[in-house]
Amino acid sequence: MNFDNFETGAELSREEFDQRTPDLRVELLNLQFDLRSADFAVLILIMGDDRRACEELTDRMHEWFDPRGLDTEAFLDEREEELGRPLFWRYWRALPPKGRIGIHLGGWAYHAVAERILTKGGKRRFARRCEHARAFECVLTASGMSIVKVWLHSSTKALEKQLDRADKNTHGWRAREYDRTILEHHGKIEKYGEHLIEGTESDWAPWLVVESTDKRHRDMVVFEHLRDRLAGRLAGAVPAPFDPPLEAHASEPASPLRQLDMGVTADPAEYEKELPRLQRRLSDLAREARDKGVSTVLVFEGMDAAGKGGAIRRLVRGVSAALYRVTPISAPTEVERAHPYLWCFWRQMPRAGEIAIFDRSWYGRVLVERVEGFATQAEWTRAFGELRDFEAQMTEHGTVVAKFWLQIDTDEQLRRFEAREHTPYKKYKITDDDYRNRGRWDEYVAAVDEMLLRTDAKHAPWHLIAANDKHHARLEVLRAVCKALEAKL
Amino acid sequence: MNFDNFETGAELSREEFDQRTPDLRVELLNLQFDLRSADFAVLILIMGDDRRACEELTDRMHEWFDPRGLDTEAFLDEREEELGRPLFWRYWRALPPKGRIGIHLGGWAYHAVAERILTKGGKRRFARRCEHARAFECVLTASGMSIVKVWLHSSTKALEKQLDRADKNTHGWRAREYDRTILEHHGKIEKYGEHLIEGTESDWAPWLVVESTDKRHRDMVVFEHLRDRLAGRLAGAVPAPFDPPLEAHASEPASPLRQLDMGVTADPAEYEKELPRLQRRLSDLAREARDKGVSTVLVFEGMDAAGKGGAIRRLVRGVSAALYRVTPISAPTEVERAHPYLWCFWRQMPRAGEIAIFDRSWYGRVLVERVEGFATQAEWTRAFGELRDFEAQMTEHGTVVAKFWLQIDTDEQLRRFEAREHTPYKKYKITDDDYRNRGRWDEYVAAVDEMLLRTDAKHAPWHLIAANDKHHARLEVLRAVCKALEAKL
């Protein structure tokens, strides 16, 4: 990858431009119209080493497309609400729903290059950003999204000329001053731009590098490319996202669930003493985390009637209600279905210093969706890596992540179901579905085992908890959360 | 209204509390369960002159209700994204959808009292906040929401005692210091609290004032009240929101639409010269507004084929795509239907310095929804005041607001429909619906006239534009937007 190869000096005469433009614009608007009722969204990333060209191209997109169908986001100044969340939160938040075109001006690529230039020792972070970007684009492609990435390149010499011309103009001195500063870094922007393109080039989200010096040539190349991509996609040319084959385990792994000692119980006297002590401890830790701006994400999964709700209630008993939020995950809404499946979870990332507790979570992808067949094998297979990357982003941001699987055995579950027949609490009423799920017990066990093996990570560990004894489970959860926060604070 | 009357010294013994609690908690959880499938949401505002009591009560809500069904928001520190928007944006954003309970700790009441104490000359602003709060609660009630407002009151003496006790505790010195500061203002908090309750008491969103000194008494009163309100509402006791009768016009008003000179046209030569000049001017103004953090809201309404889209495209031609967003308004989504109708528009309020352009808008309530019968007469009648308040909030925040009605006559519309039969642009294809709407022309004219008469305001004016000549209309729109921005900047 070398930008020099793109400095062809190609130009397009005004005459030819004016001749080709009208038909192209009709085609683009009609494709945008067809997109409205299509089952996918389009994401256009506009980046380059020629700032003005990037902005001009974005403006032209608003001119040649119907701006009512565009969701454009310029990623320049960082906002407080963005700085408080994992890096890619801002890009996820600005994704277009199905039927629309999203334009990210700068986007993740801008932040990656800017950070690489402005901070020392950023080589590893830069490489990491590229990995996250690959993962990001992979998830989006798998959801059906069509991704177009444009890099507008100009030689330093051409940029200098451009600025000299601009200087004769009396307006916009501030923008020019800014551009002069950027120009000093142009060599670096090119260098890291080349690295970035190499690191994030893919079949499903390829880069289009265009020389930006001649505006007519530049726009014609970009819009014809857009037309071809959009027309192809609407005609059914779905790009195949990277489908990593599941790595085989080195040897047949032991089943974590079967290894769990299900007979463990808590001493009643110890429970009475420990529970309030741990709750007070967590109360203090939560306040300290708030003061330090450290966020926490807690995931609760478990067999039906394993006691997730009860464990969560005991967990938060001492914590100020202003500091945490419990999010129950159920079937996705219409708006959520118009986005990639991780979108709704990204939106729930806690603000700086807050605790987000998920009662069921993104692991539904490799549990209920896998077992019930709502996700294809390709989808849940791919999900292991996607979920690892998702959580890695949290911990790299400094968020504390802990995940809990609450396990009970079939006899205990049946006892609890039967006990619920007599409960005065309506929400615990058992339905036929609950009994039906028991028939799939072994399939769930297999899915859980694989999930535990493939998504356990040092920074985002699974806590596998024997929950036949509720008291034991509640204490274990509290201890683990306190420990995770203590380690971070 | 005098808090002294609530200092009854009522207490509840532990014995009685423990005896009444279990049944009450079962009832509350079962009511919350029933709420899940009900067609309304519950909003609980917790405020008072006893900070600790407010937080304790909120924590107890999380204990006695299932926290998975609660959307709790503590309104204390102001966030950057909130400061950039009109005042009530933050409360609208935190509203629970149907089936859930929202808890606003402090909420609008906290900000109103805090501002009244901390800033001078805030008497008018305070009164204005109360008016907005009334309007807010009125819209929510009309959407079916059930609102419970709790004020926890303590005498200064009791608060001093509470703090003295807390001082013996070694922990939490910072919270105590904070409480000491608040205590100095306690007299004022009480005074403005009384004003606030008087100013925002209503049949549909009544205040519950409870003495907070005895925790058991306090919680029992609040939760029994909640149980009764929730049970009543679930049993069908829908509170009637304030339904202001439409004020009669002093005399039969002239029809603004009929008074409009539809024959006006733009000179072609002038158009060629003026259009780019105005576009450059707006480009500069938009940048200046961005630098100064001044937001703009532009509303476009008009008869079908009146040229809204074309006018918007010419309007933004010179403006950087990063500075504006065009939002087309169509039928509400599932999530939007689970909220009051203004909710989705509040969410679209622009960030500081940005321009939000609405292609159709909240005026659908008094136009298409009225004419097609999607809104009841009570709903669209009430809407005039609701929309006035909505826009008043924008302008009080400093946002520039301008509204455009583009008018064509029936002959011109027919000509455009027929011309579209031959357009290569798919999006302009005419459907049977378009012709059907023509049959309701007179009803639309009446609705538009009434809208113009009832929602025109000096700070949020309607620009009634004769659009038979597209060039004339586009210039008029550009001129009006430039003028509005110039006046503000």
From TrEMBL, chains A, B:
Q: Where in this chain does the record put each Polyphosphate kinase-2-related domain?
A: 12-231, 268-487
Database matches in Gene3D superfamilies: P-loop containing nucleotide triphosphate hydrolases
Q: Which InterPro entries match?
A: P-loop_NTPase, PolyP_AMP_Tfrase, PPK2-related
> What is the name of this protein?
Polyphosphate kinase 2 (PPK2)
Q: Which SUPFAM superfamilies match?
A: P-loop containing nucleoside triphosphate hydrolases (SSF52540)
Molecular function, one GO term: polyphosphate:AMP phosphotransferase activity
Give GO terms for biological process: polyphosphate metabolic process
- Pfam families (alphabetical): PPK2
The UniProt keywords, alphabetically, are:
Kinase, Transferase
